[in-house]
Amino acid sequence: MVSTALIDVGGGFRAIFGAGVMDRCLDDGVSFDHCYGVSAGSANMVSFIAKQPGRGHRFYTDYAFRKEYASVNNFIRDRNFANLDYVYGTLSNHDGEYPVDFDAFEANPTGFTVVACNALDGSTAYFDKSRVSFDDYDIMKASSAVPVACEPYMIDGIPYYDGGIADPIPVQKAVDDGFDRVVVILTRLKDVLREQKKDIAPARILKRTYPAAAERLLNRYRIYNDEVALAKDYERDGQVLILAPDDLCGLSTLTKSFEGLEMMYRKGYTAAESIGRFLES
Hints:
alpha/beta; globular; 281 residues
């Protein structure tokens, strides 16, 4: 029997593309044996595993425009542009505005791995589904803590940053874990290389407190580009399917517009049409 995995690389507000992909999968009855989430991609996957279509869309197109969610005021007040406790706590807990259906999440046999970067030594951390519990979504917060824009998130006394600076596209991890068919959701253009220049200034700031994480940030472009190339190699062999937008709709990690978000969501929803055939091939 063919074993299947889904990878969502996140990408801040661009990650609504993955929310569209997963809503289409829910509508089409497509499931996976395992999900690997990086940064905002891990949040998308919680809603997917809990079988809550439309939940991610609501977060990106409604809640994300609230100053409590992400704003310069947040950064000035507590050094966190995105208030991860608000997103993954206030809104998502059982008494929140749009709670995770935790019972459904827990009952779903789909495995779950969340990627984060240990800020102290720069190592990659892979948290599994057992680290998610009722009203405890800390591993998603850790995976989504964008360096400099956010303070590192503490788990068991260890500070963690965004998984995207450690293992941005964990395709080799999925293959090593034994999965035969892997769908990779990118939120950048598939054939455009990532450049280092936007990471140089934040890495310089980060180096003062977390030099190992700063080194990972400086090399993120190289790791990302190498992992895209690897995913393409696996795609040529028929083991991987890469889904990526053909346009970024004016979105970036921390900038957005309602129109751009809606367009990106629809692109993801449409792209997911090919998943069923790929998994059956």
